[in-house]
Structure formats: structure tokens, C-alpha cells
Amino acid sequence: MLIMSRREGETILIGDDIEIVIAHIGRSRVKVGIRAPREVTVIARELQLVRDQNLAAAGVEPSPGVLSGLIARLQPGVGPPRS
Amino acid sequence: MPSFETKNFGPIPYQPEAVLKFPCGLPGFEDRRRFLALNLEDKKPLLFLQSLDDPGLCFITMPVLNVDPAYRLEISENDLDLLGLPTGRQPQIGQEVLCLAIVSLEEGGPTANLLAPIVVNLSNLVAVQAIAEESDYSHRQPLLCEEYAVC
After folding, report:
1. Residue B148: its pLDDT value, please?
2. Residue extents of the structural domains in chain B
3. Element (DSSP H or E) covering residue B83
4. Pick from B60, B66, B141: which is nearest to A82 by CB?
């Protein structure tokens, strides 16, 4: 992966028609401006993860057995805390 | 009372004032903007999010606090604005907002999306799927711990 060092206000060009601007550098976050042709999709990685997960979740048609099995196993308490 | 014919539950009569309004839809389903939350007694703690625009679209969800009792909301200012909630602080789950995690039935076991919970403003029923931009929550949090799986 190409790593470039940039200051606030500086830009990076990708090809002829995509421009990335480092708009603001905060303590733990960077605001990035992106200028790209309309046909280029620009989304945050999380949004792609969530979209794919939604499509997968909606694509499964649970059988009654799977659902009742899940409910039965959820009853004793809650799921595991996050690690 | 209007009724909607669903694929999974047959016809469902519903109160128009109980419809959840998603101004942006959900990622992957941007044009699905009206949902009903079906709370079926024998399916608790699961709650079904049935689209009123698509008879076959129904998400299985459960309250985030049932997945993680210590769950902390991290709703972006944009999403708070969309919900019609004050920015600058997080709303209280259960008091101001309903907060649901979408459940996926995966081959390796069911998971819940804690990265992007469905947040419903209880005062106006406006809802968004709020992606927590600065969190460590998983979009595929296993629902059942391994001890359960071998029981």
C-alpha cells in the first residue's frame, strides 16, 4: 500500500479526475474531502459492511425450527458481552 | 384499520400511527422507508421489522440491551439530526429511543449487528440504522456463546 504524508489542506490526485483533500486534522479523526466523477461510488467502509450484512440478513428465510431454537437458547439470559 | 399482506405472517392489520418512518431507508434498502415492528408474544425477545413497501422484506431483530446489557450508543450528529433528537448528547435507550440489532442467521451461528443498530425516536417514530463510526462494536457479534452451542 502506498502511504503518503500530507498536511491539512493538501491534496492527493488519483488518476486524472479524482482528488482527495485533507480538509481537517483533529485529535483522533481526519476530515477528508473527495472530488470524483459522479459514476465513481465513494462510501465509508463501515457502510459497505452494514449494507452487505443487511442484504445477507434479509436474504435468509428462517424455518420455524431455526427460529424457535434460537429463541429457546436466548431465553436463559443474554448473549455474551463483547470482548 | 389498514391491513398489509406479508409473505411470512399473512395479513397484518396495523395502526397507521404505529408505522416506523426511515427517511433514508436502510443501507442496501434505501427505498424501503416504512416498517412495522412486530412484537409477537411467542417470539420474544425477537422482534420483527416488517417492510410495508415489500411483503417479503422482514428483518429479525432484538433489543441491543438483550445482546449486550452495557451497550453504549454512539449515534453521529447527522443521525441525531435525522431522528429529530438533540445533538451533543446520546439519547437514553428505552426512554427516548428504541434500539434494535439486526440478527443474521449465519451458518456459523446467529449474529447481531451491534455496529449499526436500528434507532427509533419513540416520540415521532422516525428511525435510522445508525452506523457507529468510532466504535469497536462488531457488525457480526455472535449471539450464542460457545458454551451454549455445545449444551
Report:
1. 45
2. 3-143
3. helix B77-83
4. B141
